[in-house]
Every structure is written in C-alpha cells, then in structure tokens.
Write a structure and sequence with these properties.
The protein is mainly alpha-helical. It has one domain: Arc Repressor Mutant, subunit A, CATH 1.10.10.10. The chain is built from 6 helices and 3 strands; from the N terminus they run ααβααββαα. The chain has a 3-stranded antiparallel β-sheet. α3 packs across α4. The relative contact order is 0.13.
Length: 163
C-alpha cells in the first residue's frame, strides 16, 4: 500500500470536494432544513414508517435529539407521525411528499455535480476510483449503496451511519 500519510492527504482533499458538493446541493433548502435534518429525511427515505428509537439508532443520536428534529420537520410539513398498528402507544414516522421531494431534489443536484466532476477525469481512472472508494467504504464498514430502485441515493447514509 502507498504511504499512509499520502493516502490520508488524498482522502482529506477529496473529502473537502465532497463536503463542498454536499453543501451546495443542500443550499437551495437552507431555509428549510439543516444538514442533520436532511440526514434524518434521507434515513426516512430508506427506512419509512420507523419508530423514534430506530430513527435515533440509525442516526447515532439520542432519542431526545431525534425527537426534536422530528418535531421541527413535522412542523415544517416534511415528516408526519401516525400510530403504530402493532403498538398504539408508539408512533411511526414517515416522510411527507414535500420531505421526499427535498430528498430527491438535493440528491439530483448532488448526483449531477459529482457526475460533472467525474466527467472531467481521465476515463482510465474511473475503475480505479470505483475500486478505491469501494475499498475505503468497506474498511469503514459502510454497506454499499443500492444502485437501482427508490433507495439508490448516492449519499452513503444507511443504517450503519453514525456521522
């Protein structure tokens, strides 16, 4: 393997690019949702009809933190609660149409900007980038993102995400 410091520098540089892409893709919703709230919306887009404890665990936050975010998103009309048919004392949380629209729009902007960046790369580096990023995600125990279907968000935020 290459020098660990050199690889670390390269990953840090690439992460700055990806953080910038993420910030720009979310900028249009700046007055609507924060980055942590967007993470919650993305989580619900993959794990719809989820209880508070599961949402908190999926996000790696305390249930009280998750509840405050859900309250704000529900007030904004981006999530809704309904009784759990299996346990009437518990509510299930799901996205509203507006919540799903925000996830879809931000994801589309993110995908488009990443595609533009990748299109400027030498095509010979494409498979090497796939291999390197896949190995990086695997080393971090991050499951692969789906490549098709409604869960095919290129965000990397799945049930193992804590940060």
């Amino acid at each position: 393997m290459a020098d660990v410091d050199a690889v670390t520098r390269a990953v840090l540089t690439a992460s700055r690019v990806l953080v910038g892409v993420s910030a720009r893709s979310l900028a249009a919703t700046e007055d609507t949702v924060t980055l942590p709230q967007f993470r919650l919306l993305v989580t619900l887009s993959v794990h719809d009809d989820t209880n508070l404890s599961a949402v908190a665990e999926l996000l790696g936050v305390n249930p009280s933190t998750a509840m405050r975010m859900i309250d704000r998103l529900t007030t904004a009309g981006l999530t809704k609660r309904h009784p759990n048919p299996a346990n009437r004392r518990e509510s299930l949380i799901q996205l509203t149409e507006d919540g799903r629209r925000i996830v879809d729009e931000v994801t589309a902007r993110r995908r488009a900007e990443i595609a533009t960046i990748v299109s400027h790369m030498d095509p010979a580096h494409g498979q090497a980038l796939i291999d390197a990023l896949t190995a990086f995600a695997h080393a971090a125990d991050e499951p692969a993102a789906p490549t098709t279907g409604p869960d095919a968000y290129p965000l990397g935020w799945t049930d193992s995400t804590t940060g």
